[in-house]
Amino acid sequence: MGMFANAFTWWNGASWGTTFFSRRNGEEVGRDEAGNIYFQHRGNPARRWVIYDGSNDSSRVPPGWNAWLRGTINDLPDKSLPPRRKFEQAPEPNLTGTMAAYRPGGSLAAKGIRPASTGDYEAWKPE
User: Which domain range does residue 19 map to?
Assistant: First the structure.
């Protein structure tokens, strides 16, 4: 499929229609460190959108850009928000479905042996 993948899909980047609309009606206002491109409508600045660099997963939008997209802040994140502090961790996308997903103890997907039942559980029985 290669270069034609974006012609027919919406889940991986932008389709040709979205790209055409964005170039015709939108003004690029910025890019984030993940390569996502942010647009604002030329005629209606309150209308904002993102074209993802890769899969269309909103958890890949950093918090500052998310605030801008939702209209929580009016100016771009670099101008409206303070810089990230040393102790703050970089945001991570949703890891569900990946090898890095959290797997609590007792989960069938977790490594190790499932702990034995302790007998401290009493099943609910309807009266």
Answer: 2-80
